[in-house]
Amino acid sequence: MFANRTRLFIGTIFLLSLIILIKLRLYEFAAVALVMVLLLAWDYVRQGTLVVAARCFHHKDYGKAERLLMEIFKPEWLSKSRRGYYEFLMGGVCLQRQDFEEAEKHYEVAAQYPLRSVNDHVAALVHVANISIRQRNYEKAEAYLLLSEKHEEQINAKMKDVISRLHQELKKHKTP
């Protein structure tokens, strides 16, 4: 939930208080300080800077969002619910940079994890389909659109419209 600088600052304060509390022989309070340091470390491993990066992403500050996402030491260590969202956000950042191959990889991974909502899951599938159409890989695009249609009754009208437009685009390219 914190950026790395904030996490490091708070961790340093708790670490210093841990040392002072041990010197003062206040072991109960020292134990609390130690638990706080461990919680900060655990939070970093399981959550990373994802919450702050998501806020930047939604405010269209893609450069800062990418920097915060790159601060995550090992994305594989994120919790299942966070890993999918990490990949979804990285796909969005890559899409903004117009690095379509990287965006496609991230969205494919994101589709394998649980996301916040069915709409987000379908959005990841639709992004892969859209990128595949741009790269003239029509079979892959069709497969991902079929996967997205499995959730048709649970998605909003805007997403349904995007899916129908992608189907029309596919029809243009499939019929000679």
Q: How would you characterize the overall build of this protein?
A:
There is one protein chain. With about 180 residues, the chain is mainly alpha-helical. Helices cover about 75% and strands about 0% of the residues. The chain is built from nine helices and no strands. α3 packs antiparallel against α4 (about 60-70) and α8 packs antiparallel against α9 (about 155-175). The termini are far apart. The mean pLDDT is about 90.
How many β-strand runs?
0
Radius of gyration from the alpha-carbon trace, in angstroms: 21 Å
The poorly predicted ranges are none
Note the gap between the termini.
52 Å
Q: Give the percentage of residues in beta strands.
A: under 5%
Structural class: mainly alpha
Reported for the largest beta sheet, the result is: none
Query: What is the helix content?
Result: over 70%
Order of helices and strands: HHHHHHHHH
How many individual helices? 9
User: What does the average pLDDT come to?
Assistant: 89
Give the overall shape, derived from the CA principal axes: elongated
